[in-house]
Write a sequence for this structure.
């Protein structure tokens, strides 16, 4: 009887030990999965951030190039006017001023007389 009792006790102890071991392995597995998910999320966020930054950089570059082109065109026009000579340049400038005034009036909501 005593031997049987001792054996049962030993068996239960072993079972509990196995159970604890199982639990620990289960928890470790769970923790590993969580770490993996966390890593993945971090990677995704980093990727998204990089994507957004690139998008912004491209957008800024576009606007800068646009401004540069506009300046260049303006310079070219001025050079052309200088080359044509004083009289023709004067006509060109007057024409440009007229166009500018027309744009301003349009912005204000007034219509141009149209006979100029």
């Amino acid at each position: 009887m005593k031997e049987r009792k001792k054996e049962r006790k030993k068996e239960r102890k072993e079972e509990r030990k196995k159970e604890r071991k199982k639990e620990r392995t289960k928890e470790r597995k769970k923790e590993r999965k969580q770490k993996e998910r966390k890593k993945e999320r971090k990677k995704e966020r980093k990727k998204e951030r990089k994507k957004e930054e690139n998008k912004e950089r491209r957008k800024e570059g576009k606007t800068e190039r646009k401004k540069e082109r506009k300046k260049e065109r303006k310079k070219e026009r001025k050079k052309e006017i200088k080359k044509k000579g004083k009289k023709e340049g004067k006509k060109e400038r007057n024409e440009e001023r007229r166009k500018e005034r027309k744009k301003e009036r349009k912005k204000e909501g007034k219509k141009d007389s149209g006979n100029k």
